[in-house]
Amino acid sequence: MPAEIGVQPFRQRFPWIGGDLQTVRDYLVRPAERISPGARETLAFEMPDGTGDTLIGDLDRPVKGGASRPLVVLVHGLTGCSESVYMRRAARTFLEAGYPTLRLNLRGAGASRALCREQYHSGRSGDLAVVIDRLRAPSGAAPDGIALVGWSLGANMLLKAVAEFGVEKGVRGAVAISAPIDLMGTARTFTAPRNALYHRHLLAGMRAEVSAAPGGLSQQERERIASARSVIAFDDAFTAPRNGFSDAADYYARNSASRFLPEIRIPTRILHALDDPWIPRSAYIDMDWSSCRSVRATLTRHGGHVGFHGSDGVWSDAEALRFLEGV
């Protein structure tokens, strides 16, 4: 299936014109996204890998509806959490349409941080498998099935996950927004001079996250992280060795979603803007979409990274809802 350029065309909303302003809009405006009132519960998912790590998720149920609708699990991006603006805003969109939602804090993020010795990464799809199994258990919170929506790093993880076990675990549909499907290409794009401010901000957030883990860092890890001057160097110093990869290049190659897309067998929607300043256009333009028969990829000319701020709200949220309504 070829990528669709401009299907359900996204129109930028003034003054958020161009990929950069679309990307930083929520940082500049700092909207207070309120979730519709309803039943709320905090769920804990202990990881069965011997680490003792526990993931925390915020479960919200709609005031009305919810019958025969899947639970939508929302997966945040790098340095995000369940309280990120895009997570809360999307939860509100789904709740108002009658879908229960779970805003998941990945391993070491948000409310999970104090309960985890280890840290999430782009390919840690096994954690999602554990969460889905617990939610779909006879006494779990998802009697009507699971759907997945992810952003950025969480979107890459989501795509890898549904390729590996989407059919086996009965995932009903998945939506990936601004996914860095070529991790090495994305890391290199981040180091470009025009992205210096983005890069500095993200690298500082990555250092802060891993330094706050209860398990702590070895002196060698602290020294290597402190000396890392790029995302690639950080992943060489910490992410790769901590997770059994030989180096950053090995980590990127084995976890980039592009290699998993042809294996996906459940209905999946990808939304991506070609003016995303963080992800190279070539990752999407050069992809052989005809080999990805269960994936519908929509590439828009504008929208930035996890942006898509239009005159009628956030276009990607509306498209994600429309897609899941159809499956």
Overview of the structural elements:
With 327 residues, the protein is of the alpha/beta class. The protein has 2 domains: 249 residues, 3-Layer(aba) Sandwich (Rossmann fold); 72 residues, no CATH class. Strands 1-9-8-7-6-4-5-3-2 form a 9-stranded mixed beta sheet, with helices on both faces. It has a two-stranded antiparallel ribbon with strand order 10-11. The two termini are 17 Å apart.
Main attributes of the structure:
single chain, 327 residues, alpha/beta, Rossmann fold, 2 domains, 9-stranded mixed beta sheet, two-stranded antiparallel sheet, 11 helices, 36% helix, globular
Separation, N- and C-terminal Cα atoms: 17 Å
The secondary structure category is: alpha/beta
What is the radius of gyration? 19 Å
Please state how the strands of the largest beta sheet are arranged side by side. 1-9-8-7-6-4-5-3-2
